[in-house]
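Milestone 3.1: sequence recovery, worked example.
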C-alpha cells in the first residue's frame, strides 16, 4: 500500500485541477444547458452553476483546512460567472488561494482528526484528498453536459 503524503495529495489536486479546467475550457455554448430532466440537486446544475460552486468551494476548503492546521485562510468569495471565459479567468486566483493553504499542510498533520462541515469527523488528509475528488467529480459533470 502506498503511503499518503502531503506532496502526493498536492500532486493529485494539481492533476484534478487540470482535468477540470480542460473540461471548463471545452464548455462554451453549453454554459447554461441543464442536464436531462429528472436530476435533482447538484446533478441538475448547468456548467455555470458547477463553475460558480467550484470557484467558491476553493475558499470553503481553504478555510476549513487553514483552521485545522492553524494558518490564515484567504477570504471566501461568491462567484457569478457570466460565461466559460469568466470562469476560466476566475479559477486561477480561487485555486491559488486554496493551494496557498494546502501547500502548508505537513505530513505530520494528515492523520489529525478534525470536524469538517458536511464531512463530519475526519482527518486533515481526508479533507485535502477530497479536494481532488471534488474537482474530478465536477469535471465529469461538466463533460456529461456536452
Amino acid at each position: 500500500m502506498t503511503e499518503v503524503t502531503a506532496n502526493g495529495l498536492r500532486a493529485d489536486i494539481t492533476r484534478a485541477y487540470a482535468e477540470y479546467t480542460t473540461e471548463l475550457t471545452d464548455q462554451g455554448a453549453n454554459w447554461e444547458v441543464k442536464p436531462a430532466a429528472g436530476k435533482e440537486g447538484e446533478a441538475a446544475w448547468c456548467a455555470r452553476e458547477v463553475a460558480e460552486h467550484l470557484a467558491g468551494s476553493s475558499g470553503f476548503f481553504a478555510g476549513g483546512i487553514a483552521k485545522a492546521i492553524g494558518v490564515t485562510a484567504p477570504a471566501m468569495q461568491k462567484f457569478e460567472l457570466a460565461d466559460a471565459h469568466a470562469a476560466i479567468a476566475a479559477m486561477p486566483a480561487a485555486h491559488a488561494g486554496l493551494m496557498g493553504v494546502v501547500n502548508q499542510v505537513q505530513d505530520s498533520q494528515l492523520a489529525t482528526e478534525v470536524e469538517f462541515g458536511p464531512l463530519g469527523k475526519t482527518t486533515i488528509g481526508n479533507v485535502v484528498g477530497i479536494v481532488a475528488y471534488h474537482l474530478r467529480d465536477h469535471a465529469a459533470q461538466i463533460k456529461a453536459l456536452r
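The chain has a mean pLDDT of 92. DSSP finds four helices and two strands in the chain.
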